[in-house]
Amino acid sequence: MSAPRASTDEESAPLLQGTDHASSRTDRNFFSALTHPTRQLTNLEKVLAAGGVALLILAGTFIGLFTGAEVALGKERAKGGGKTEWRTATETRTVGGATTVTATTTAPGSTVTAVPTGKPAADVCLTAECVQLAASIIESLNTTVDPCEDFYEFANGGWISSHDIPADRGLYGAFHAVADRNKQIILKVLNSIPSTSDSSVADADTANRHKLKAAYDSCLDVETLNEVGMKPLVPLVEYVIDKFGAFDVKYSKDEESISWSDVQDWEGTYGKGYQVPERLAGEGERANELRVAKKEGRVVGGEAADKPAGLEVDMEVSKRKKDGERQTRITETLAFLHSRGVDALVGFNIEGDAGGEDSQIQSLWLYQTFGTLPSKEYYEEKPILDLYQSAIAGILTSIAEHTGSQSNSEKRDYADDVAEVFEVAGWPWPWPGDDKPDDKPKPPPKQDDPLSERMYRLAAKVVAFERDLVRAGADLEYLFNPHYAYNPYPTSKVDKALSFLDVRTYLSTYAPRTFPANITVTYPPYLKAVSKIVDQTPDHVLAGYFVSRVAVTFADVLGPKVEVRKEMRRLQEVLKGIKKGTEENRVDLCLNYVDGIVGFIAGREFVKEAFSPEAKKEGEAIINDIVDAFYNKLPHISWMDKESAEAAQKKAKAIIPKVGYPLTPNTTDAESLQRWYGRTEVEGDDFFGNVLRTTLADVSRTWMSLGRQRDRQTWEMYPQTVNAYYSPPDGEIVFPAGILQPPFYSQEWPSHLKYGAFGAVAAHELTHAFDNSGSQYDEQGRLRQWWTNTTTKAFEERAQCISKQYSKYFVLDGEGKKVFVNGNLTNGEDIADSGLAQAYIAWKDSLSMTETDKPLRLPGLNYTDEQLFFVAYARVWAQVTRPAVAVQRVRTDPHSPPYWRATGTLRNLEAFHSAWGCKAGSGMNPPKKDQCVLW
């Protein structure tokens, strides 16, 4: 048997125990082995041993001399006699107009902290989770920056220097990183599901997973999509042609009677080098933000104000007799289109009755149409209209070729019959003055021009018609502001106001269980305008509009090589600033469609992989702690009188927090999900059909809620979504499982990081209930004035302080010029960000109640828990942005730029100043006159 292995500091006994007692002793040191050998040493061994002893003595001598010199040098430095200092020089580079740290080197002038060695202290957490978290935080820091001067750069400089913006994006930040990781979790699940399965005999979970896989596969199968081409779209278009009429007509008697003088004034203005101006792109982004906010149930718009002039109108606008036959055709066509998610002429939606006695009763709202282009302003940009006309012309040409709309479905005008009579036989009887051949009526010219030319002319009229509709509508900030948009009228009056629509027949096609007595008209003047526009528009133009709306709505569901899809892609590349020919990210597109088709099934799989009941319970506890902290603080708010403070407390307690996933459908119950999607057939080779059937089911489900109490267990987001929202009419703050992920939350984290990151998100949504929009709703979600006038005035003064403060902040454009934040636009979000103060109080209170022992510290982070609380907060706003995108968003986004969301909030917070010892007048602790405190 071989000799035992020598022991080490980490191992107190040999790995294998020997049988020889002498050889198994563990107390024999080098010198005892040398002086008392177990056998006779050779001469060579004696020489080597003597040399080893000499080397040890020499090494000891040098170590002693070095230690003495170091002690002496330390004493000299303490006296101030040292002349050499060390500083950290930072090398920087500029990426997209933003200066970022790329490397640091030690040089004379600065203090450098040594890496700790030896055994860690007993209070340091050494679990894998803690080590990874500590490493992540250390990598994100830029410790060369004074945290009291620029805390955002201190907390995120390392992250910024190590992250680039993906080529297909304009910005990239912590939110995007989490969303990308969440997608990878869903993709991992999708790849684990077999493509074929007998769903008819499978259990609920297996059947659901099969639908999930089929939805994804059907979108990803581009080859099949290209092969089927236009076939899925044709039945929809042919129904419109059959019900309303053809768009490809040779001649219309209305053609010469309608003036289209301004229709073609944009032709030829678009060139290949054209780019959407920044101001226009900004308006489009702003419109998108407003639409998203509306979809998520968030209020857009500020405090109550006088309604715009002309908002109150006579609803009985149509004194002329309605064209019953045409009205019937339009009514049937609109009911068909709207049930399939196609926006045309007007739009109906089911929403809570925010201005009524019960905001949870689902009522009928009527909206204007929005058009294809991103915002109203785009319809005044001639190059865009020129490009849009070209795209619509290509779409109509392709549809006409595939449907044979003229030969099969053309509804002939009287003038066509007259022309045919003239051509074939002439009039059967003489007209007065027939003896004068020159006075005979001349037939209209026969038009045998190519299809593409006819469609190009028709497209110009369709675009002009759509522009007129959009012009007639309200600006979105009015349309989505409840103080302007809440205008309920009796259904009978709305019916009279819309000359082209039989409202009662339209509503009956959706078979609502409760017929609405009232309809809330979001912009009453639109009814008169749209009626006039439709009445004056020839049938074939209206048909072309209907058909183009179908094509635009479903273009993305067609194969990339299908002409309709190619035309829309050509338009989208310009509108979105995408380099021509850039291939779309098919995986991302398909994951988005998976959400739309079976999003809650995907949510269940995500929750199983990345969320736990314990995380849900703790998330709810954190939110409740923050609500309690806010509730307890309200009576001590100096600018609120007692009556208003008590009303605010009542509202705070009425807030309903929702964490993780909805219960309708129940994400944790496979059978609940199976019932929810039971009416939706999902096939792995029918992407178009999957989308269409899903839309029909969703619209039907929505209409079934009309007149009923809203199901409080439903959500506006899927569990995998990286976001959160507050819904004023519903009094809910909602946090999907998708956002309860690092760097926002992990169950293994110490409490100061949980409250600093996720707690800040929770406090943000809670504070929205008391910002300049949410504060207009009482504890029942009703649009009411529930503060006293004195408190309202005091609130507005402090809100304006925040607005003026943020209006001093800016971003840099591509040339390094400052573009300032619009503090009025961002006021609501800036106020909500100040909720961080409540998260901090809630964390401190939680320590006194729940943590009796000192919490473990993270390795390598020599900061207090208070300091790390604020590091956790700042890290969630880490982001790199292209200058053009930064400028665009600062002009349109209701959120301040991420840099200022962190910096502006912390500058106003005394707890931050104390935690980091920031002196008055420093960058992060400005003079009190420059600080604004509301909540």
Write the layout of secondary structure elements.
Blueprint: H1 30-35, H2 43-78, E1 87-95, E2 98-107, H3 128-140, H4 151-161, E3 171-173, H5 174-192, H6 204-220, H7 222-228, H8 234-243, H9 278-295, H10 324-339, E4 346-352, E5 362-368, H11 382-403, H12 405-409, H13 414-424, H14 451-472, H15 476-479, H16 482-485, E6 488-490, H17 491-497, H18 503-508, E7 518-521, H19 525-535, H20 539-554, H21 563-576, H22 586-610, H23 613-633, H24 642-654, E8 656-660, H25 670-676, H26 687-704, E9 725-727, E10 732-736, H27 751-768, H28 789-806, E11 810-812, E12 818-820, H29 827-833, H30 836-850, H31 865-875, E13 879-881, H32 883-892, H33 898-907, H34 910-916
Helix pairs in contact: 3-4, 4-31, 5-22, 6-22, 6-25, 8-20, 9-32, 11-14, 11-20, 11-21, 14-19, 14-20, 22-26, 23-24, 23-27, 23-30, 27-29, 27-30, 27-31
Can you offer a commentary on this structure?
Helix 6 (204-220) crosses helix 25 (670-676) and helix 11 crosses helix 14. The protein is built from 34 helices and 13 strands. Mean pLDDT is 82; it is low at 1-36, 56-118, 256-262, 302-306 and 407-446. The protein is of the alpha+beta class. The strands form five sheets. A four-stranded mixed sheet has the order 4-5-7-6. Strands 8-10-9 form a three-stranded mixed sheet, covered by helices on one side. A two-stranded antiparallel sheet has the order 1-2. The relative contact order is 0.13. Among the domains are: 87-161, no CATH class; 233-557, Neutral endopeptidase, domain 2, CATH 1.10.1380. Helices cover 49% and strands 7% of the residues.
